[in-house]
Amino acid sequence: MRYKLLGRSGLRVSEICLGAMTFGSDEGWCADKSESRAMFDAYVEAGGNFIDTADIYTQGESEKLVGEFVASDRERFVVATKYTNAFPGRNDANVAGNQRKNLRQSLDASLKRLDLDYIDVYWVHNWDFTTPVDEVMRALDDAVSAGKILYIGLSDAPAWVTSRANTLAELRGWTQFVGMQLEYSLVERSIEREHFPMCRDMDIAMTAWSPLASGMLSGKYTRGGSEAKRLDTLAFHDIDDRKLAIARVVDSVADDIGVSSAQVALAWVRQRGTIPIIGVRTLAQLHDNLGSLSVTLGIEHLAQLDAVSAIELGHPYDFFTKDLVKALGTGGMGDLIDNHRECR
């Protein structure tokens, strides 16, 4: 396991993050305490130190288990959790959202469940489009000043919100977001339009949830079994021909180099400069996912994967690639200007 600096901070996190959304439930898509502990131990043994959970995961049990698992060596771990959303069934307008009130009550509740004095990375779980940016950033900064949080991040928010928030925080001397958490995989590349260039320019770390597209890229829906059964099983993930085509190229590359499909999909995400968050249900799945650390995709295989999963960047980015536009903007000297700020 290697480590990366989390954005513009000096915090060192492992190149794969362990997602704890599956920790602590008897439901079919989750793992019980014993299996969760085994997965945690295996991840730590591999060198992992970055654990991601949220206050609503498995009705708060995930936070309790994460806190219990890190307790014996707390300072070794980078514990990340989130606020914004409410437990299902709560009918209270202020029990959810990004406002100061919910931030305070959610943060205190998470610290209690985790049984920790502070949280390393506190994520805004998603942008609520009701709370002013300055209220969110000042409330988070107050929590940092109080010693309850070390760093802050933003999940599932537009790029313009993130850039406005960090610019405002920079001007006012408040704590800035050091990371973003967004869906990213070979079947979901839309964040390459705005989020990638913004994060690169502002030195914000990119972490990817669902890097296997809810198992679509693991091979379990494209290898064996009847086509109808596979499609019915994953119908709520909006399967289409394009996504299946991508999954089959992943399978082909995996067969070519002798690794699993999941390892190819995770290696691709890592080679794009992002930190994949692996959300596994069994110890076997964890070991397989960690095996992606030894996979480096070559130029030919990267080209195959990029081609089948390519998206249109749209306006204005496609407009910028036109020869006439480049010539007009550079006085006809574009080929002689070395531009390290080029949008790519």
TrEMBL record:
<dbReference type="InterPro" id="IPR036812">
    <property type="entry name" value="NAD(P)_OxRdtase_dom_sf"/>
</dbReference>
<dbReference type="InterPro" id="IPR023210">
    <property type="entry name" value="NADP_OxRdtase_dom"/>
</dbReference>
<keyword id="KW-0560">Oxidoreductase</keyword>
<feature type="domain" description="NADP-dependent oxidoreductase">
    <location>
        <begin position="15"/>
        <end position="309"/>
    </location>
</feature>
<protein>
    <submittedName>
        <fullName>Aldo/keto reductase</fullName>
    </submittedName>
</protein>
<dbReference type="InterPro" id="IPR050523">
    <property type="entry name" value="AKR_Detox_Biosynth"/>
</dbReference>
<dbReference type="Pfam" id="PF00248">
    <property type="entry name" value="Aldo_ket_red"/>
</dbReference>
